[in-house]
UniProtKB/TrEMBL annotation:
Residue ranges annotated for the FAD/NAD(P)-binding domain, each copy included: 2-289
Subunit structure: Homodimer.
Enzyme class of the recorded protein, top EC level: oxidoreductase
Name the UniProt record assigns to this protein: Thioredoxin reductase
EC number: 1.8.1.9
Catalysis: reaction(s): [thioredoxin]-dithiol + NADP(+) = [thioredoxin]-disulfide + NADPH + H(+)
Keywords for this protein: Disulfide bond, FAD, Flavoprotein, NADP, Oxidoreductase, Redox-active center
Family the UniProt entry places it in: Belongs to the class-II pyridine nucleotide-disulfide oxidoreductase family.
Organism listed in the record: Enterococcus innesii
Length: 310
């Protein structure tokens, strides 16, 4: 039995692993892909203290090296559910069951779908959710980016190195993105905006995307814009399906914790983007991970004391 099982190896999970293993706890970190989480799909990170700028995958690798330095064990697996067996928890993947005295959930979230006609049909044929992964396929094409948050605006800027032109379609007349990111987009000659508008349909021929149908939400006017690709950044959905039966999520699926990262199940913690929280960033994920990594140590010590006084 492990002292701690960590589910997910993004910045939150890897930091929890570092803190727990440095406290001499036995730690298993289960990940369904490459360690690094969303950092692997981020071009440049400019707001992680200590680095003026660093590539997302590079930061991911540095964090991974640090996380495993004190003896963390890694396992590949897609966690399907967890059960509370009282003195220990069981974590079930597609082919194995692990036991841990504590569990830290760090599964993050995924991009939300727009839910319009053509989105599924043209996925991978002009519709993308990852500029870093797919941007280079769209050299000299006009691109549409949907959304007004940090992701949409930052990735639109990234795409200008490949595209002939990038048009951001946003449903309001002001962006949600951080001011510094907005200012860069406004100053970029390749970026234009279509305000107060939503993409209603993604159109294409039998092969690829050729454009979008857009509706102005104030005037109801419908127009068509030609485009070789559509990048969708309309927010995030939590990856909490495996934990819903445990009753630790809210109606929208985010996991509720206190500021010690404790869920309503003793010994089960949640950290990073998967939590209901205000600011989803690498820094806040790392902060959450360090708190939970320390808390599991205190929890296990308290359990030991309780056993001794029985
Ligand atoms: P994640 O990074 O999402 O990691 C979760 C991990 O859990 C993943 O590796 C996933 O594979 C794994 N997992 C999920 N479900 C399971 C399962 N069932 N079983 C096993 N493993 C599972 N933040 C910044 O601070 N600066 C930036 O510049 C920045 N740029 C961004 C750009 C984009 C395009 C996006 C989408 C986000 C960006 N962010 C940025 C936000 C930042 O990446 C996240 O806040 C951060 O990665 C959250 O860390 P996390 O560890 O909570 O989750
Ligand atoms: P987000 O902040 O939730 O923004 C989503 C955007 O999509 C909003 O502008 C929203 O419009 C719009 N939207 C939502 N549903 C829509 C729909 N159905 N149709 C059209 N538009 C829709 O999501 P995000 O930009 O992916 O960012 C997620 C988290 O990662 C945030 O915490 C963010 O700070 C973080 N992040 C940070 C950085 C960085 O620090 N450099 C970079 C990327 C992401 P409204 O504005 O009208 O709600």
């Amino acid at each position: 039995m492990y002292d701690v099982i960590i589910i997910g190896a993004g910045p939150a999970g890897m930091t929890a692993a570092l803190y727990a293993s440095r406290s001499n706890l036995s730690v298993l970190m289960i990940e369904r892909g490459a360690p690094g989480g969303q950092m692997n799909n981020t071009a440049e990170v400019e707001n992680y203290p200590g680095y003026e700028s660093i590539l997302g995958p590079e930061l991911a690798f540095k964090m991974y090296e640090g996380a495993i330095k004190f003896g963390v064990e890694n396992a590949y697996g897609i966690v399907q559910n967890i059960t509370d067996q009282g003195e220990f928890k069981e974590v079930v993947t597609e082919d194995k069951t692990y036991q841990g005295k504590t569990v830290i959930i760090a599964t993050g979230c995924v991009h939300r779908k727009l839910g319009v006609k053509g989105e599924e049909e043209f996925a991978g044929r002009g519709v993308s959710y990852c500029a870093v992964c797919d941007g280079a396929f769209f050299r000299n094409k006009r691109l549409i980016v949907v959304g007004g948050g940090d992701s949409a605006v930052e990735e639109a800027i990234y795409l200008t190195q490949f595209a002939s032109e990038v048009t951001i379609v946003h449903r309001r007349d002001e962006l949600r993105a951080q001011k510094i990111i907005q200012d860069r987009a406004f100053a970029n000659e390749k970026i234009s905006f279509i305000w107060d508008s939503v993409v209603e349909e993604i159109k294409g021929n039998e092969m690829v995307v050729t454009g979008v149908q857009i509706r102005n939400v104030k005037t109801d006017e419908v127009t068509e814009e030609a485009a070789g690709g559509v990048f969708i950044y309309v927010g995030l959905d939590p990856l909490t399906e495996p934990f819903k039966a445990s009753g630790i999520t809210n109606d929208a699926g985010w996991i509720l914790t206190n500021d010690q990262m404790e869920t309503s199940i003793p010994g089960v913690y949640a950290v990073g983007d998967v939590r209901e929280k205000g600011l989803r960033q690498i820094t806040t994920a790392v902060g959450d991970g360090s708190i939970a990594g320390q808390q599991v140590f205190d929890f296990i010590e308290t359990q030991k004391d309780a056993q001794l006084t029985k």
